[in-house]
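All the exercises in this workshop are built on plain-text protein records. A learned vocabulary of local backbone shapes supplies the integers on the structure line. Once this layout is familiar, the rest of the handout is easier to follow. An example says more than a description, so a record of this kind follows:
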Amino acid sequence: MAREYPLEKTRNFGIIAHIDAGKTTTSERILFYTGVSHKIGEVHEGAAVMDWMDQERERGITITAAATTCFWTPTYADKKDTSKKTRFNIIDTPGHVDFTAEVERSLRVLDGGVVVFDGVAGVEPQSETVWGQAEKYKVPRICFVNKLDRTGANFEKS
């Protein structure tokens, strides 16, 4: 059976960071803006698609890595032309230090990582831990500074 999306058009990327940096919120926005979900799931409301366990919804934190798929077509391409479409498998990882092993398991399958930093808190201890883990598995990373709309946020110090 032929693949609908060839492997060269498939990317696995993880959202990694310290707890409460906004990993799940970032994942939820990606799902919304790629058309996977029709409403942005909010962590504080217990409505995040990526936090699927009852414990995660009650505590407002990610406990297990969650994977989902979305698709992206370049703006210059015809939306119906699937040859231009790229499949993204997103892995939203936990940020709490107690679940570091869960992050490490996820890193083994990633093509790249989005390291989320809190624009107010900056680099935090678990940020450094996940950065080191990504280095260990040679996962290319980009940095995303989140929460820049908050009081006290500072891009340069993050």
